[in-house]
Design a protein that fits this description.
The chain is an alpha/beta fold. The protein contains eight helices and eleven strands. A five-stranded parallel β-sheet has the order 4-3-8-7-9, sandwiched between helices. Strands 1-2 form a two-stranded antiparallel ribbon. It is elongated and about 70 Å long.
């Protein structure tokens, strides 16, 4: 009787779209209905609005894997908007020539102000993606992951009318010292790095804690089966079962890799 009841409960969970053990590991059953995962109910929903001239650039990568599951589970609500929807002319113009002359075009302030003011709440943080911004790192990602509402504005052309910077944006963020074709690509990097730090997004509580940069060092090397491949063996300490020795080895290796690849982090 108990076995029959247990099978019934498992079947109901599977129909609700929860993950069930199959022959190839944990996977959703074919035809399962997507539903909010129970683990997400204890976490507040974070809203992220992206404003861009190229919504599809953002939509594809943010609709897969962990980002997809975070949205389906209700941990985050992600909305991607086309800035042209806030223009008022029949040609949907969003740029104009710069005052004082110069190359390229500058994004106009009117549609940007209209877009952000229509989306902004009392707890909103407006982030402008721009090469002139603060360098994005794990510390800033962690800080942003604690916000309840992020509005991410993507730059394009030669830049944005500076009145947006002065009177609308709460912070300017750059993902590195290089220039991209548009800020939508940078916005995807920013959102992905922030979302994975929100409680309830990753499958294991320590996944984000053990990431590179969280301790000021790069992450230690990782290995999986087989224990020997083409004559290359996994370090014996990882097979020992001695957690103290494994922790010490990982700390030593993290320091070695940081010194080798990112010595600037040790200054």
């Amino acid at each position: 009787m108990a076995t029959k009841i247990l099978r019934t409960v498992v079947a109901l969970l599977c129909r609700g779209g929860h993950y069930c053990k199959g022959s190839k590991g944990s996977r959703p059953l074919a035809g399962a209905i997507e539903s909010i995962a129970p683990t997400s109910l204890s976490f507040p929903t974070v809203r992220i609005d992206i404003i861009t001239l190229f919504p599809e650039i953002c939509r594809a990568p943010l609709s897969e894997s962990i980002m997809k599951r975070a949205q389906e589970s209700g941990v985050i609500v992600l909305r991607i908007h086309n800035l042209r929807d806030w223009t008022t002319d029949k040609h949907h113009v969003v740029d104009d020539a710069p005052f004082g002359g110069g190359q390229g075009m500058v994004m106009k302030p009117e549609p940007i102000f209209a877009a952000i003011e229509s989306l902004r709440r009392a707890d909103s943080i407006t982030v402008l993606m721009t090469p002139q911004g603060k360098r994005f790192d794990q510390t800033l990602a962690d800080e942003m992951s604690k916000k309840k509402h992020l509005i991410v504005l993507c730059g394009h052309y030669e830049g944005i009318d500076h009145r947006v910077v002065e009177h609308l944006a709460d912070t300017e963020v750059s993902i590195g010292d290089y220039v991209l074709t548009n800020g939508a690509i940078a916005a995807v990097v920013f959102v992905d790095a922030v979302v994975r730090l929100i409680p309830g997004v990753l499958g294991h509580d320590r996944s984000a804690v053990d990431d590179s940069f969280r301790s000021g060092l790069l992450e230690a090397p990782q290995y999986t089966r087989p224990a020997e491949f083409r004559g290359w063996k996994v370090p014996e300490v990882l097979l020992s079962g001695n957690h103290a020795q494994i922790a010490a080895w990982r700390k030593e290796q993290a320091l070695r890799r940081t010194r080798q690849n990112r010595p600037d982090l040790l200054k």
